[in-house]
Write a structure and sequence with these properties.
Length: about 190
């Protein structure tokens, strides 16, 4: 694994630190009036989700870890665990449902997602950036309501509530951005 200086840490880097795997969430480079510069790094543990704030001077060496990303197909959910299958080897893995957080309702049977592995351990899962959903219910269009940015609430087929433009009606397929949890476009 490559060793990097403390001032080379960037958000999104995965580091091996204090015997665990941590992802850098936020990095602030500080140059105090007295003493040497350092990087104040906010990190999240990939295995248990705990947070840690630590300082790294430029002379500190840290192990940077590269995670392997593999596409996995979602099969089913069993007792709070999501079961995925590798399309090439047909090997199945389980991940806790809370790894997707509030984006869990967008995961559909047969969907292919990206799972990050460290050696043979699955650590993280990422949904596709855009997912197609159907609008179950929404308010009717009010004539004359043409103000810019006038959105109305809608309920999707997976139970998620979000704001959609006035021209979108019930039964329409829309594309939702899973990163921002917002309407993106018509399908």
């Amino acid at each position: 694994m490559p060793r990097i200086n403390g001032n080379e840490i960037r958000p999104g880097n995965v580091l091996e630190h204090n015997g665990g795997l941590w992802v850098a969430v936020k990095v602030d480079h500080v140059k105090p009036g007295k003493g040497g510069a350092f990087a104040q790094v906010e990190m999240r543990n990939l295995r248990n989700g705990s947070k840690l704030n630590d300082r790294f001077r430029s002379a500190d060496k840290v192990e940077r870890v590269r995670l392997e990303q593999r596409d996995q197909q979602f099969l089913y959910e069993n007792d709070g665990m999501l079961v995925f299958m590798d399309a090439d080897t047909f090997e199945q893995i389980e991940l806790p449902a809370e790894i997707l957080g509030e984006r869990r309702p967008f995961l559909k049977d047969g969907m292919t997602i990206e799972v990050e592995f460290y050696e043979s351990e699955a650590l993280n899962a990422t949904l596709p950036q855009k997912v197609t959903c159907t609008v179950e219910e929404t308010e009717p269009v009010v004539k004359g309501q043409t103000a810019a940015n006038s959105y109305k609430p809608a309920v999707l087929d997976n139970g998620v509530r979000l704001m959609v433009p006035p021209f979108v009606g019930p039964g329409e397929a829309i594309v939702v951005n899973t990163e921002t949890m917002e309407y993106a476009e018509r399908a």
